[in-house]
Amino acid sequence: MEKGTPHVRLHIVKRMVLEGKVRTTASAVAGAIELGFNPPPFDEMCAVIQALTSEDFFKSMTAYVDHTVWHDVYRPVWKRQKLYLKLIVSDDVLIVSFKER
């Protein structure tokens, strides 16, 4: 299922990241390194999230395995690179995907 509005409002996501309630998958870290982010890329990945705007939002979609879990997808431009970010927000922000689009 997909929808055209974020499952979690962006200001809540940003606040959670500022509070340190954020983690990432190994795949997202590998994607950030492939994009040229300096290892460890975690701080810069968080900076990208803090710079997101509502215009960067692309879609929300449910996970393939569990249709009760929503992924918010953003497509920002960061340092002239077009990115694709997929976030799951529950008790924290999980950066699921971080790659070039």
From TrEMBL:
GO BP annotation list: negative regulation of translation; quorum sensing; single-species biofilm formation
Xref: Gene3D superfamilies: 3.30.2310.40
CDD domains: MqsR (cd12869)
Protein's organism: Kosakonia cowanii JCM 10956 = DSM 18146
Name of the protein described by the UniProt record: mRNA interferase MqsR
Pfam families the record matches: MqsR_toxin (PF15723)
